[in-house]
Amino acid sequence: MQITCTAVQVETDTVTSFRFTADQTVDFIPGQFLTLVVPVEDRKSARAYSLSSIPTDNELQLTIKRVDGGRVSNHLLDNLKAGDSLEALAPAGEFHRDAAGGQPWLLLGAGCGVTPLYSMLRDRLSKQANADITVVFSARYDNERLFAGPLAELALKHPNLKLHWLISSESGRLTAERLAELAPDIADRAVMTCGPQAYMDAAVANAKTMGATNVHSEAFMAVNASLSSHEGEMATAEMSLSVDGIELPILPNQTVLESLEKGGIQVMAACRAGVCGTCKCKGEKGKFKSTSTMGLTPEEIEQGYFLACASTATTSMEVEVDD
């Protein structure tokens, strides 16, 4: 589908929201992401960004953070303007409102991880004004708080919404002790967390230690979901893939395609069996092994091209997605 930018709203020094109209009806569950296919210089790159709008809004809204060295995020924040159109894939993602269910919520977010939680919060309050929701959002500095104004308005309008901001430069990061103080009834709540991987890991561990059983974290850059298919291997990834300035963990015997997709990077992959050649990527020779090179020319193989679905990393390496 094609989406057209209608407005640009600078949120912080590094985060901007873009509003869009689409050429077709877009159905999504609050918390899901939209994948943009963005032409940058001589090729197209696909990236997934969380929706900060809700289904009843007149337009779609994506809130995007500038990533140091990020090919796509920097291009969008520097160049995308009202009137520009982009190709987008259908909304997707398992981290959303329905996973949290109808029990009281605890939303834990840090940095741009606030985005999908903000969508979920607005949606639920629009349907259930008296919903019991505790929100604990973290930012490094006060001026980096996302949606601070609209969130404050929601808290004033809905007495059952308890909103807490933690500014790490002033009061430190969210600890188990602070979490117990802000959400003493956490065991009775569905916990949804999104943010940097270390933040989510700590939040999930603390929530479960305190008795929470319905706990979900955004999986853009998580590795836990892949562990069940890699039994006997190390529980954390010591290797990583560097893609356009983004570091993604990769487990031994986990395919490059699996790592890229779990990191939210869209890769064209039709057969997923090392046959069609559509998931061709470029890496560093000697740092990966492949079970198939079908569809690649001898010249491409010599240059370091490989099939993401049929290749695993033997050490950390840089990867260029050929999309």
Automatic annotation (TrEMBL):
Q: Does the keyword rRNA processing apply?
A: no
User: Molecular function terms in GO for this entry?
Assistant: 2 iron, 2 sulfur cluster binding; metal ion binding; oxidoreductase activity
Which keywords does UniProt give here?
2Fe-2S, FAD, Flavoprotein, Iron, Iron-sulfur, Metal-binding, Oxidoreductase, Ubiquinone
**Where would I find the 2Fe-2S ferredoxin-type domain in this sequence?**
237-323
Residues spanning the signal sequence:
none
Coiled coil, from the record: none
Pfam families on file: FAD_binding_6, Fer2, NAD_binding_1
> Superkingdom of this entry's organism?
Bacteria
InterPro entries for this protein: 2Fe-2S_ferredoxin-like_sf, 2Fe-2S_ferredoxin-type, 2Fe2S_fd_BS, Beta-grasp_dom_sf, Cbr1-like_FAD-bd_dom, FAD-bd_FR_type, Flavoprot_Pyr_Nucl_cyt_Rdtase, FNR_nucleotide-bd
Q: Which cofactor does it need?
A: FAD; [2Fe-2S] cluster
Q: Which residues form the FAD-binding FR-type domain?
A: 1-98
What protein family does this chain belong to? In the N-terminal section; belongs to the FAD-binding oxidoreductase type 6 family.
Q: What name appears for this protein in its UniProt entry? A: Iron-sulfur cluster-binding domain-containing protein
